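User: Teach me something about this protein's shape.
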Amino acid sequence: MSKISKFFKGGGSAASKSRGGPTPQEALARLRETEEMLSKKQEYLETRIERELAAARQYGTKNKRAALQALKRKKRYEKQLSQIDGTLSTIEFQREALENSHTNTEVLKNMGYAAQAMKKVHENMDLNKIDDLMQDITEQQDVAQEISDAISNRAGFGDEFDE
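Assistant: First, the predicted structure itself:
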């Protein structure tokens, strides 16, 4: 089955059909395949346009009918090329929107996991106990500072010496 017929007939995996739709990765892969196929078709049409233009120049005034036919084919190819350009733009827009949606979903899911982890970490914490602990720490730091100040001051060995 060709890529195009798979795309339009929904030739995806059985797993994606049983879940009710393709995964974002499957959809992105298909959109990329379609983009590649259309890009190849663009290249083909561009070469055909160049050939028809060269043929029209070759026939020039010698065979006006053949030159006009070549120009008409060139015009048809250009019309197809502009349609493919529009289709490619639409597909690129859809692919980017799908990528962004998938990214947003993953970010949201990870934020939910982080919130659950924080909730679990905070389960065993009581604000009153934390407040008491912080007061104890502050008191002990004050005591340590007083001890440090007492040790670092001179012991008075020469302060009382009178000249």
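Now, about its shape. Residues 24-113 form a domain with the Helix Hairpins fold (CATH 1.10.287.1060). The chain has a mean pLDDT of 85. If you'd like, I can walk through any region in more detail.
User: That's plenty for now, thanks!
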